[in-house]
Amino acid sequence: MNIGIRSNHARTRSRLAGALAAVAGIALLTTACGGGTSAPTAAATSSATGRAASYQQQVAFAHCMRSHGALDFPDPGQSLSPGQGRGIKSNPRFAPAAAACRHLLPNGGVSSQPAVSAQTIAERLHFSRCMRARGVANFPDPNSTGDYDLHGIDPHAPAVKSAALTCVHLLSPADQQRVRGAVGS
Description:
Helices cover 56% and strands 0% of the residues. The chain is built from seven helices and no strands.
């Protein structure tokens, strides 16, 4: 279950997937609309160029990570099996490689998402406690940035879905919407 909070690795994977989707979309549009006589607009060209540059940054980051010893670091868009991301991050060479390659990420690897408020973290902490009280014993507390490590939590398991829908009222409207979407309600 993702309540809109992501780890740095998850953000990177999300950016990678978005870039691949954009490149695929451009390729599909080019193929479907080929033969047109009008030239693309400057805005469309700039947007496509930006996405291609972002994808190239992600490819460079992946290559850098592997060249610094994180040999199992995936290419952009590569699917990971459940738990594989945790295994990659547990590699003792991951942190030094990430530090050496961070400059290749957009914004130097610094999230452009706004900081989560103390109130939001408190709401999420109450939600976590409620989830555990409703039978999801391994539901984690949010960390200091409001992120959850939901490894091993199946949002579609009946107990998780039931507890989430019971506890969702403790969250902000935006988080409520994310929880309902994650559990399929």
